[in-house]
UniProtKB/TrEMBL annotation:
Record-linked Gene3D superfamilies: Winged helix-like DNA-binding domain superfamily/Winged helix DNA-binding domain
GO molecular function ontology, one term from the record: DNA-binding transcription factor activity
Cofactor dependency: [2Fe-2S] cluster
Protein name per its UniProtKB record: Transcriptional regulator, BadM/Rrf2 family
Statement: the UniProt record of this protein carries the keyword ATP-binding: no
Keyword vocabulary terms for this entry: DNA-binding
SUPFAM superfamilies (UniProt xref): Winged helix' DNA-binding domain
InterPro entries listed in its UniProt record: Tscrpt_reg_Rrf2 (IPR000944), WH-like_DNA-bd_sf (IPR036388), WH_DNA-bd_sf (IPR036390)
Pfam families given in the database record: Rrf2
Amino acid sequence: MKHTSHADYALRVLLYLRVAPGRRGSVGEMAEAHRVSRHHLDKVVNRLAAAELVETTRGRGGGVRLVRDPETITVGAVMRAMESDFAVVECLGPARYCRVAGVCGARSVFARALDAYFAVLDEATLEDIAENDLGLRGALGLLHGAGGA
């Protein structure tokens, strides 16, 4: 299964905010740190805000910040907030054109696999995946007072 770049970028935004000084940053800073499109990150941040994982504030001193403790944000919740389709086979989705749908066992196998996948992601928190603070800060250019407020 492959997720969209928005799901990937959402995790990157949250990791940045987790290790940023004051757990705050601007979309521009995060785009530069991750070397990704600011336009794409704007969309990602808007979806994260709609999911109540981050808060955005405009103007001087504004930016993006985490609104929940990193120990309470699961990777599974982030993926669900960013993705709309987890139908790895057609019969898991809303449209069913497969001629053998309902008479083969593929649906139950893939449904169980998807449940197991989310069971793992629901156990992992933002705090878990940000375990290497110093390494993340270095990789994102947040050492020596750079970036963040």
